[in-house]
Each structure stands twice: as C-alpha cells, then as structure tokens.
SDR family oxidoreductase
Amino acid sequence: MLRGAAAGAGAVGALGLLGSATATAAAPAAATTGVRTRSRRFAGKVVLITGGTSGIGEATARGFASAGAKVAFCGRRTERGRAVERDIRRSGGEATYLPADVRVPAEVKRFVDRSVERYGRLDIAFNNAGIQVQKPLHETSVAEWDDTTDTNARGVFLAMKYQIPHLLAGGGGQIIVNSSVGAVVGRPGLSLYQSSKQAVLALVKSAALEYGSRGVRVNAVLPGITDTAMIRPPGLDDATWERAKTALGKLNVDGLGTVADPEHIATAVLAMAGDEFGYLTGVALPVDGGIAAGRRMLLPES
C-alpha cells in the first residue's frame, strides 16, 4: 500500500524525474516560511485540527497560532506532535497536541472533548487528516479501500459528529474540511483517494444546510498538488526534490505551473475562517493553481 510519502515515489517515478533530463529543470524560488497573517486576528478563538503533525495540517496550526488562536491538534505520530507543539509555543503561540487516530471513534471524541475542556470552547475546526493509496483499482485490496475511506471520509464524519454539539453550545462557529481537487477531476491510479475525497463534499454540503440556521458554517478546501510527504518520495535529497517538483508543476498544473507549498493551502483556510467570509457556507474552494479549470489543448507537432 502506498501511504503518505510512499505515494510520491510512484508520482515522481512515473514522470521519469530521477536521473533524467527532466530533472535538470531550474529549482524554484525558496518556499514560503509561514502563513502571512494579520496580527492576532483570531485572538480568543479556539481551533481544532486533525492531522496537524505535518504538511497542510501543521502549516495551518502554525498559522492560526501566530494569528492569536488557541490551537489543539491531533495525529498518530506522538513524537512529531510534541515537537510541533513545542515549536509553536517557543514562537509565542498557544498549542496543545493530543494523540488520536481519526479512524477510532473513542479517540476522536476524546480529542474533541479534551480540547474543549482545556480551552473552554470551540470556534473553528479544520478536519484535515488523510492518507493516499496509489495503484490501479483492480489491484487494490479491500483492506486498502477500508483504510482509505475510514481515514479520509469516516474520519471526517466522526470529527464533525463530535465537534458540532460543541459549536452549537457556543452559539455557532465553523468547520472547514480538507478535501482535494481530486474530488472534481480524475487521476489514474487514485480511485480510492479521490472517491473518499468526493464523499466528504457531500458531508460538507448537507451539513451546511442542516446547521447554517444555527450559526455553523461548513466549507471545504480543495488543494491541488502540494509539497507534502504525500507526494515526496522518502529519502530524496532536497536538491533533487526541488528539480523534480519544478518539473511536476510544469507538467501537471496548467494554470500557475507550480506545486503548492502547505502554507498556500493554510493561508486559504485562515481566510475562509475569517469574518470576511461570514456569508460563505456549503462551498468547495479549489486552491490548486488552476487544475480544476481544465487542461490546455495540446496540438501535434507538424
């Protein structure tokens, strides 16, 4: 099974980027170092994040904390979670890591309840945890299907199930779900991942209608190809990865031609959570460099 970083090996290998002429493309500009925020605009808010120990979840946790929010986040990698917690606190933010597996109902409930107990309320939830399997559909095992849907779809359901009562008790709030641009466009070899991400869009739309009149907004963000362990092969040195990533963006992102940094997605999540978007609900927002817009037409050479 290709999970997390392992999925990247197939993506890069399929492009022939390792040791090929394509890999000689110029390296991109340095990645952004953090989410740009207006000072303390989330002061007094309590934010819960699933899958917050790396990638988009970690970048979002750091972004909310730097903007004044109290952040509780979960994940399965305890050592990594504690390190992120310490780093946020050293930077002057407030964050608490709590170990939890979103596939396990009791652990999700405990994460939500303990977070609210610690910080006194819940205002914003970012349900982000996810995994990826990359292989042809007919070669996929039932166990891989179950694990992917249990994490990506059932995990979101469980988080929302236990978050919504606290949001209602506090007079409202919002939930943002990390789906994927793969929910609206197809990719060979990613049928499990993309079907699970399509499922959460139905949850978002229905929940937005169920709870909007009670002050709870529910939206989804649809990241495109993003520089996380989900696409980067493990053990690949930084210089080789930067060349591969440049080629990956040029080949697959027809709009902006680059791979996103996690901070690009985190910045969008913070924007959606702000008061400026107080009339936004039931929406799936692509943050994908133009992938959802379509592909350019390629003509044969004469």
Q: What stands out?
A: Strands lie at 46-50, 70-75, 94-99, 124-127, 173-178, 216-223, 284-287. The first strand starts at residue 46 and ends at 50.
